[in-house]
Known about the structure:
The structure holds 2 protein chains of 2 kinds. By secondary structure, chain A is α/β, with parallel strands linked by helices. Helix content of chain A is about 35%, strand content about 5%. Chain A has 14 helices and 5 strands. In chain B, helix 1 crosses helix 2 and helix 2 packs antiparallel against helix 3. In chain B, about 35% of the residues are buried. The model of chain B has no long low-confidence stretch (mean pLDDT about 90). The interface between A and B is medium-sized, with 29 and 32 residues.
Amino acid sequence: SGVLLKICSLPLFRMICQTIDSSVPAEDYDQDNFSAFPSLRGYHWRGRDCNDINSSIYPGRSPKDWDALQDSNCNGIWGFDPEDGLPYEKKFCEGTDSKGIIILGDSAAAHFHIPPEWMTPLTMSKSSFSNMALAISNEFDWPQFSLYTGFQNSTIGGWTQSLYLRLREWNRCNHRDYQNIARNGGSSENLQKYLKSMARDQQLDKPAIVFYAMIGNDVCNNLPDTLKHMTTPKDMKINVMKQLEYLDMNLPKGSHVILMSLADGRFLWNNLHDRYHPLGQLNKDITYAQFYGFLSCLKSNPCEGWMNKNETIRNLTTERAEQLSSVLREITTSVKFSNFELGYYENLYQKVNAKWERFGGNPWDLLEPVDGFHPNQVASAIGADLIWEEILQKQPEIFGKQNPFNQEIIQQFGDQGGH
Amino acid sequence: VSTRDSCIGCVLIVSLVEQLAQVHNSSAQKAMEFLCSYMPEQGGLQGICSLIAELFGPDLIKLLSQNLKADVICYAVKLCKAEPHKPVCHLYEKPMNGLKRTIKQAEKIVRTSNYMQNYKTF
């Protein structure tokens, strides 16, 4: 924190640090938490504001006067049909159960990624670093390609698929209605600090599908006695309940909250430990086991429990993660809220790996090569499809009905103003 | 700057410089110039890189010419620090002569450099 304080006092980084701290857009003239600027928590993170000097115009709100005169919810649908005088928003979106996607999550949900070409001298050139300023201003996250809120074609390998894109394809009225409220290091312990940056007005806005995906940081820390510092099941319950109560006070009626189980990070060591880290590929001299060990020795290992050569510690970390997931499952079955239905989704990455192996892929191709810790672009895209298909099959009411007017919306409004 | 952050950053950058020199069959100085020229100008990133190269460059050139590994070099220029009674953290395999001994030898190489003199004063 001392280092951060010094770096943050430099003019170059001041704005980035303020943005990280508040998790709201740095450039937001009307202070509605939506921005027309891409990075610094702008529209890479939340739907682009189509009017940044009017705080009553932003993505996700219920249309004002059916948007006959202006696009109050930025979904690109507005005006009225000259033939019958009906506003298009009313014609195409009324009763279609339109809603947005919000993700409350950690670095995996924000899509942390350090480009491997930054570490590969063999192919290094000026173009390898052309995205460096963007990466810094987005906290080394790439929410614009992520599992939950991705919307741009991936420039970091793989392809983009996301729950937002599937929901938008399902109902074009949902265009631009996404919020990525995720942060590197996010856990049930610290979510409370940035949960308030979520922008949803209970009275004015559309319902939302909120995914709660804290998949590891409650059991991941950089301390040598890592097991002692993990979130306990008791604290997990207290934290999650507090956050769900906050959501119940802020989400519009008809919303859904889906709790995602924690990951089983034994996958990391099992599949990477004897492989070469990008920095060790040229001379075959740095394996992930060495890389993890170096980070642990410096007390900088992001997940001492799983990125650890000691199998007992890895197993105990998984055991705690399973206990915390059980807490989430138990909350889902035992507690009811007034404004949203609660759901639970488990074992996402086991399912992703099983599907990837059926395609003939290798498990290590699903992991971020530089940090050896996060799921990568391929895992995210496959994960989005898996969640979509499973929820659609088991609880179709969550996504609502498919909009029968999608083709007409495309015909009339094209790409709806883009993203 | 905390030891662990400066140490990781140093080992990373010196490894890259070392490998760039190897790939381009060039001197360490040239490799540093390559690396900085690849950095984008936005946000002053290229300037920051050049500043680091100016500060540490002469020592890095001397140390890299001795075929030392990045982790040993970073201990020699004090960006990594061994804590008393704790193991010395290393990314690469330990050198044949032992890690502590190799670090001591590397420290001797740069003991009289401008940077190390300023470091001591600071």
